[in-house]
Amino acid sequence: MSATQVLTEGGTLATRVPVNDSLLKRVLLLYGLYTLLNNAAFLTAYYFLPEGFLRGSAVTTSGQIVANQGSFWGQFATTLLFNIGWMVTLSVLLNFNQVRGFPMGYLLPISIGIVTGLILGSNSFVSSNVDQYGAREGLALGTSIGGLETLGYILIIAATVRLGIYQYRSWWRWSRDWAPTKLMRIRDIRLSGSEWLTIAAGLLLIILGAYRETLMAFGLL
Description:
This protein is α+β, with helices and mostly antiparallel strands. Helix content is 55%, strand content 8%. It has helices at residues 23-48, 61-67, 72-95, 107-121, 135-144, 146-159, 193-217; strands at 4-7, 13-16, 97-99, 102-103, 166-168, 181-182. The longest helix is centred in the first third of the chain and has 26 residues, at 23-48. It is globular.
């Protein structure tokens, strides 16, 4: 993905990721990267970490909060609160920023791939035990729950690359001469029809994944 030069509000040139590349290309790139890192993290945890290694740790906090909800709809609503209220909002906010043309939202699938791979490989789920499922059943459940949710995040992230408002020249220096350049205003953002449809599809996948996750937690799958 090559970078382009754009004229900022202050009249200077800055580099940003192009937004006219294929939306499908962005989705496939992110999903492929997620899959690669997820598989690598899974194998690492399966062979080198003790079972339940991450259970009760900070990375499973959201699962612990959801599991504490006593009713089906309470768990479903809490899952949506995390998945949409937190994760989707974080995805959009991250995409407001680019570092040398790299959308910060792309970091989310990378982190999800690593963390979920480690949790699955070490069987660190809060409210379920993957050992109770056979290989085919476990794969089907994982793909139709976490797989749907992650694909939903990826669709939303890929569709909101155009939101890149602030451009940073460094990953760790953000002040004085390294302060971010504002490329445009929020009201100047325009998403295409295909990007809006992709966002809607992503939200539907996240909701469906959350519903199936709640069904599994209550033994209804």
